[in-house]
Design goal:
The chain contains 3 helices and 4 strands; from the N terminus they run βαββαβα. The chain is α/β, with parallel strands linked by helices. Strands 2-1-3-4 form a 4-stranded parallel sheet, with helices on both faces. The protein has a single domain (about 1-70), classed as Rossmann fold, CATH 3.40.50.10190.
């Protein structure tokens, strides 16, 4: 799975990257049609949201994405 993060998250990016890495999730720098999700925190970048919508990428809040991960990888993200 490939994602892009935008906005302020509740955890540090380093901690998130560690958890994502254990789950096989790659964090990309920019929005493209090759990503699965744009994950938004507080004050997300309008440009990334606009690009994601234009490319048909699913946009999830941080909470929505975390719920999805807890369902798929409970052992890593408790």
């Amino acid at each position: 799975m490939k994602i892009v993060l935008t906005g302020a998250m509740t955890q540090t990016r380093d901690k998130m990257y560690q958890n994502f890495s254990r789950c096989g999730i790659t964090v990309m720098a920019g929005v493209s049609g090759k990503i699965d999700y744009l994950v938004t925190g507080d004050a997300p970048g309008a440009s990334k949201r606009r690009q994601a919508k234009a490319k048909g990428v699913t946009i999830l809040t941080e909470d929505e994405f975390n719920e999805k991960l807890l369902e798929e990888y409970p052992e890593y993200l408790l």
